[in-house]
Structure formats: structure tokens, C-alpha cells
Amino acid sequence: MMHHFRSGVNRRAASVGLLGTAAATGLLSLAGPAVGAVDLSSVRFEEKPDHVILYIIDGLSYKTWTRANLPALEGLIQNGVLVEQSYLPPSEHPVQGPYAEVHSCSIPNPVMMAGTLFLTKETIYFPQNIFPEKITAFVANTTNYSSLNKYYHYSYQKLGPDPEGIEMALAFMKRGRPAFMRLHLQEVGEASYQILFVRDNVPWRRNIWADGSPYVGMLTRADDQLAGFLRGLKDLGILEKTALVIMGDHGEADTGYHPPESRDAAITSIILWGAGVRKGIRIPYAEQIDVVPTICALLGIAAPKTSQGRVIGEALAHFSDKLPPRRTLFKSMLDQFEEFRVKEAESSFRLVKLTSSEISRLQRDLGNIKMDFYGIEKFVEWPRFGRLENLLENNQRAINRLAGLLEEIRALK
């Protein structure tokens, strides 16, 4: 499906790494639809994983667990860890300008792989940190993440359904036993896009949770496919040596898709399960930059020096390092973006209605405040702040100035 947002649902011409070789050896038959369920409670895991798989379900909403019946995912939660809300930057997808010259996907995706919000030429993305010493694999049933497809021994990016991506992931696991694999499946997110933009008056139009919703239908299918993937790992004899980190690359608005203004689109969940992971734990909050250091902790390696995330150590069975207190900085960032949008909109609306002689000065002051606020549209300029705390302090000053200006505007007739 093609559309002008050029997001994760953009179906373009495919490029393939190693597909011909894998298909020729018959490896694509590993994850058929008739696989049996794995008894998750009976798996006896190794203390530390040999393999960590970052399993991305595009557009996974944090509300999923109370809205859909997903036995495979719920089984992982019961026997692993659920991070109920994982916050990320707004899911903006610039199609021109400095960001688009470097990245082919929405902002949360490189942030996920870098462990920092501040992307520069010096940023170290996680696979770069372990390549070529450890075998790595990349699988996506789209070419939209091609800018992230670096430092992988095995690579597959091809237009196709989710089951084909899962089959290739198992083929790579059989062939190379990668220590790290990034597997990104698209069809849940595609269904959400359809719900927002469908023109027919169907019951699920602009409601991803309505009866008959393609989003819920694709979540159900994704759950079945996950069960098949687990069976494939078990058949390969490596399930007990594997840790899964399952999450969305972004959340999803209840009305469909992931517009950057939507709070729900900036929250997903994370499930951790397998070797080295504790059981029966729920964690209320994490941030997307925590994924990289957590994967590194599972593999027993140092995080990239440019990573700024916090290890989700509460989820790990043998994590002994002292954890810093959890701070909800990403949530504060989203709160600021929302507050600034509301105050700026009211200020602009009221200024249009004014006839005061002060209007030129007020418009100039508003313009200066907008220049000093660094929202997601200025993402490429964020590195000047170095740390999120500094960005938040700067933006709070701008919000305070805007609040004072708004009061001044309200007082005028």
C-alpha cells in the first residue's frame, strides 16, 4: 500500500538479501501454519541467552492487553515481563530535509536502535557495536527500514506478508545462529492505516477496537504467527537459549495510524521473555532508548558509548548493577509538546481576532517563542542539548514565556 506519508505501510519494490540461497535449500518451510503450540511454562531456559531477538510488531498499542484475546502473547507475559507503557518520541516521518536524507523510516525506529534521542554522525547504532564479532540478522517485509539495514551478516527486506518474514527469520536462525536479530513485521500497522483512511462507512472506520476491526484481526493473526515462530525456535533446539524482546516501533491512535500529535501513538508495550528474563513481572514505565542497553545486558556486553538509555534491570534475572531511579522524562517531553500546541493554537487564534495596536509586537513575541521551542519538527537540532534534561529545561522556559504572552493576549479586547 502506497501513500504520501511514506511510513511503515509503504509497499515498495523489494530488495532481497540471501533469499535465493535460503529458498533453494528449503528453509522457508520451517514456520508453516500448522505448527503446534509451545508449552511456555515448561521451557527450561539457560541462565543467559545465546540469542536475543528484537521482535517488532508494527503499531502495537499498549491498550492491546485489555482489548484483544492473544493467547501466545499473553502466555509470554505470564511467563515473562510486561512493560505496560514504553514511551517514545512522536512518530514523525519527515520526507524531506536533513533527517530524510539519512533515514528512510519514522523517527522512533533509529532512536530504538541507537538508545538515544540525539542522532548525529557519531551515533553508534547497536548492531554496529557488535559487528562483525557476533553474528547479526535483519528481517523486514518492507524496504522502508533500509537506512537501518547496516552491520548485519544476514539481511532480508522484501515486499511480502508477515509469515514470509517469519519464515526467513527462522531460516537465518538455522543457517547462522545469530546472536542478535531484528525482525520487523508490518501487517498490524498496515491494518491500522486502513482503518483511518477507509472511505466506506464500515463499523470499524476510525476505530481500531470496533467489531470486525482489521487491526484486531491482524493482531490475532500476528499472535498465531508468533506461536509458529516459537515452535520453529523449539524445533531448531535453541528456544531455551533465546530471549525475546517484543514491542511496537510505535503505538497506535484509537482512530488508526500513528499521527505525531497522538499521545497513544507515542506509547507501546514491551514484552521480555526467555533466557535471562524474570517471570511474572509487570513494570509500569520504560522509554524507547532503554531497549538497546537492555539487549546489551542480556548479551553481557557494554552498551554503545552514545547510548543514553537505562537498562530495564528489573526484568533481568541476573542483573546486579545498581539502577538509577526511574525518571519519566519521555512522558514529560510529550506533556510539553501537548501543552505548547494548545497554548500556541489559542494564542494564534486570539491574535487573529484582535484589533489592538499591540498586535504587531505580540505576533513578533509569539514568533520568537516558537523559534525557541524545540518540538519534534526540530528533531535534527536536538543534539545541541546533549541530554533530554537540557531539552526539557529549554522547552519549559519557552512554555512559561508562552503562558505569560497568552495571559497578556487574553486581557486585550
User: What sequence of helices (H) and strands (E) makes up the elements?
Assistant: HEHHEHHHEEHEHHEEEHHHH
Main β-sheet, spatial strand arrangement: 4-3-5-1-6-7-2-8
The number of domains is 2
Shape: globular
CATH class call of the largest domain: Alpha Beta
Cα Rg: 22 Å
Taking the alpha carbons of the first and last residues, their distance comes to 50 Å
Mean pLDDT: 90
Q: Please name the CATH architecture of the largest domain.
A: 3-Layer(aba) Sandwich
Counting DSSP E segments of at least 2 residues, the number of strands comes to 8
Sequence stretches where pLDDT stays below 50 over 5 or more residues: 1-35
Largest sheet entry: 8 strands, mixed
Helix content: 25-40%
Write down the CATH topology of the largest domain.
Alkaline Phosphatase, subunit A
